[in-house]
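Bump. Still looking for F-box domain-containing protein structure tokens.
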Amino acid sequence: MNFPPELFLHIIHQIDQPKDLLSLALTNRIFCTTIIPDHMDYRQIWCEVDKDEVWNHLLEQRSRCQAIRTLIVDNSEKRYIPRRCYDEFKSNNISDPSPGLGFRRMFSQQKFCEALSRMSNLRTLKCALSDEDVAKRVVNGISRSGCVLDQFEVVVGRRLEDQELDESPFRFEIMSPHLNSLSKFTVYAQIFAKIDTKSMMQTLSNMPNLTYLKLTCPTISLPQFLTIGRWPKLKALTLQLASLKDEEDGDDGTYTKHLRAFFTRHPRLESLDFYGTLLPGCMYDSKDFLPRLTAFRNDYYQVFPIGTILPITVSRNLTHLTVFVAPERFNLKPGALNALKSCNLHCDKDIRILQDFVNAAPNIQKLCLHYRRFHLSLSDILRCLMSLTKLTYLLGPLNNISLSEQQGAALLPELYKFPSLSYIDVKVGNERRCARLLPNHLRKTMDYEVLSLSELRPDEFLRWGDFF
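Sorry for the wait, here they are.
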């Protein structure tokens, strides 16, 4: 609902009153937060950094801050604080927040860090660190709170148009003392953001308890990452790094061996999102880049032979996989991915890739297909997938098909031949939606229902960001 701000704030101030309230989520155009009351053991706050109403509400009572376990502070892409505001704020000691948005956000950021310093029970923090000034404020707040973080997700650097030529590289060492205890660590780097690679690698190597690591850093190369030691507890890994084709990096075969050695050191991996590396000389403008898994276009990637870099001790334990493959580079043996339950498969136009994948992963339940040059007929794809008796979600091939039109209606009989298929993605008007195929005992004729995204459980499509 689009509540007016006054009513919205009134609801927040009264939120501690009803003792049977478990959770409340409120949204309007300028304010978004989820607050769970003080009498619950768990509280989550999700809002933008310049929402003084949230920080003022938290600072009124120390117990409100101490109840928080998860804090997600959103810096939207158009709301970064200009560098000049930092410089003038520090040099002139400006006390009036009226000159502009940048200065107002500086004061809001102070309140955010003050509230952070009181969150002694905080376990999960997600925020944006545009430069070291912001990082120092956040680190100081964490130090004063005494909290021990378990999960930290951070967007590093400024947008391309806000970066300066003389901007110093971002150093992770200022955060190192507070990251050693992390079990989950995520880093998104803005396009062309300057990062002190050495300090980042050293910080990563000092996290012995990592079980989940996600790196989307176009300024860090794969060879630099492979120099790091091992994480004995690592179960989930996402890599989206820069090109390895520098003169000093060696050839493709050399790093295929290094990759296999790296995966051999991490036999507990259950989830792997490996995008290869960006091809050399690929230039893209800032609007092509978003700090998420779909950041880079498919044609920019250097792919590796997945069957060669993954030892059997790793591949047989994987339950989720994202991979870019080409026809001559998919060399997994039948049954090598026997435990695989979900997959994002980026491949070329050859049907052999799909057939080899079906043989390697016979127990797949959720499949998302990305074809760079889509020339295959839908009937060929469906015929190839027919042996997947446990397939429940199929995303990708049908997203340009409307089931209400003749072509889509003709496909329904083919889809109902799958014994367990329940969800597909289809076109509804100009939008892509999820359609649920009604099971046999609920339909008299071949039928389906289109779901809006709000009807889906959040965890159902956690890994399908490319489509939803």
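DSSP finds 14 helices and 18 strands in the chain.

Edit: fixed formatting.
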